[in-house]
Amino acid sequence: MKNLFLLGLVSCIILPGLVHGGLLGKSLVFSTQTDSIYVKLLPNEFSQLSAFTLCLRVASEEKRGYSLLSYATNATDNELLLWQEGAKLSLYFGSDSFHFALPVNDALLRHICVSWDSSNGSITFWINGVRSFRKVGKKDGVVRGGGTFILGQEQDLVEGKFESKQSLVGELTDVHLWDHVLSANDIKALSQGCHSAGGNIINWDTVLYESRGNVNVEDNHDCCF
What we know:
Blueprint: H1 2-11, E1 19-21, E2 26-30, E3 38-42, E4 48-49, E5 51-59, E6 66-72, E7 80-85, E8 88-93, E9 96-101, E10 110-117, E11 122-127, E12 130-131, E13 135-136, E14 143-144, E15 148-151, E16 170-178, H2 184-191, E17 202-203, E18 208-212, E19 216-219
Antiparallel strand pairs: 1-18, 2-16, 2-19, 3-15, 3-18, 4-14, 5-10, 5-16, 6-7, 6-15, 7-8, 8-9, 10-11, 11-12, 11-13, 16-17
């Protein structure tokens, strides 16, 4: 009987590093400032991106800087980084960075999108469906493929060299990445939970992922946002 009980306990444990599929209706809760807890996303492969739209929902009461999404390649650790620090939301492309003065995150889940188009260098943020003004950067550039997507930590090398002071403490959900710029109407619909098509690079509903450390995967109980 004791062995059967232990076997039952083992069957309920999700071991770190195992690949799981899909996060439909789920949120990731990062409850502790640490350098060891994170989620690695395993998206659809791409060779490079000359445009993208990245969207997610996040809530955090941290006022220090922290990573919302970190994408690193062997060429550069900040191939693509979405970073929040106080009332400043930043997009990093390697050594290039673009900073926007936007409302600070708080305990309420907030929908954030950022789009970029290499053809004209246009960079735009959206907060809860409301657009920022546009900035221009990385014109004719690309985001290289073959890298690693990490949630909860900022990579200083591929899947490593994390710092606890840069980690996310809060809740993260609904992460999607497209290889093109979405229309204003689509982004507004996404912010309201009314857009049914997920990202073609990262689709939160179906993306494979690995969790490391004590990441809480919770039902978000929200059929509509």
